[in-house]
TrEMBL record:
InterPro entries: Pyridox_Oxase_FMN-dep (IPR024029), Pyridox_Oxase_N (IPR011576), Split_barrel_FMN-bd (IPR012349). It holds the Pfam family PNPOx_N. It comes from Bradyrhizobium australiense. Residues 29-150 form the Pyridoxamine 5'-phosphate oxidase N-terminal domain. Gene3D superfamilies: Electron Transport, Fmn-binding Protein, Chain A. This is Pyridoxamine 5'-phosphate oxidase N-terminal domain-containing protein.
Amino acid sequence: MSDLAASDLATIYPAPTPRVIAKARPEIDAHAKKFIGMSPFCVLATSGSDGSVDASPRGGNPGFVHVAGPNLLLMPDRSGNNRIDSFRNIVEGSGFVQLIFFVPGIDETLRVGGKGSLSVDPELMASMIEFGKPPRAVLRIEVREAYFHCGKALMRSKLWAATQVERSVMPSIGEVIHDQTGLGERESQEVIYERYRTQL
């Protein structure tokens, strides 16, 4: 079985309708601004100079990503694993980013694309205190495109209606990483949760 070529795609997928093309807007409009203001979670995708791609979860209180203008988003960076894959891609690669915003209970998602840069301006960081502390840096996104995705993917997954699994069905991340690497302690979920809670 051979992989599909670009010329094969048109035989499988019809051309998008004019409405689908037109819904991609060059800025954050009133609807997108409201959606971002309700969103506590998004996924940030970046690409590196070597062609590598990174997708990273980002979260905070609803509206943690600030709409600073129709073509400017500000995302505070909170404590994480310090790999900084996304930020390294932004400063060393093309700088292009894509975001997908989620709002619990709404099946549609919002996709935003643009050019990213990093700031450690003290005044800016002081304006974005959350969980009792300022961010370590702020990602500035010059928005070039924004559009809403239909709700089919989340409806198929029943993401918001699905019964949550018990956390105990999966080993803690400390146990998983210890098993994979032999490094660190096999910390319980309770220990890890308490550390998460104090390091938000």
